[in-house]
Amino acid sequence: MISSERGAIFRILDANFNRLREALRVIEESERFFHEKQDTSSVLKKMRDLCREAYCELPQAELLANRESEKDLGRSTAGVGEMERSDISSITTANFKRAQEASRVLEEYLKTISAVAAKKAKEIRFCLYDLEKKIITNEPGDH
Q1: pLDDT digits (tens, 9 = 90+) for 49-65
Q2: Which of 6, 62, 15, 35 is CA-nearest to residue 135?
């Protein structure tokens, strides 16, 4: 892997770890403070812990050294509907999609750096699919 490619991969990883942690936290806050659901908020916290474990598999200095948020082309753009939310349910749904997308990106790009971290990203992604169904459809029981 050429060094500019490695730097780009680390930029992608850094951005998507941030995106995933942020989305998980948004969903967790809804479950904790609005729905007051201990079981799902605990699962979301465990997913954030798993995300942190995957992140720690990587060289932290290299992740930060390749961060260029001031130059990020997406910084000043917004996708369709990104600035519109009608209620907590729409916030939750948007953040599930954001987290799922970020975990898939992480899974793919982590394969070039750490198979252990890539497996954790995959685990998070499938847990998100299951948890989204549970929360959105109000399924009972632990997950």
Answers
A1: 999 999 999 999 999 99
A2: 35
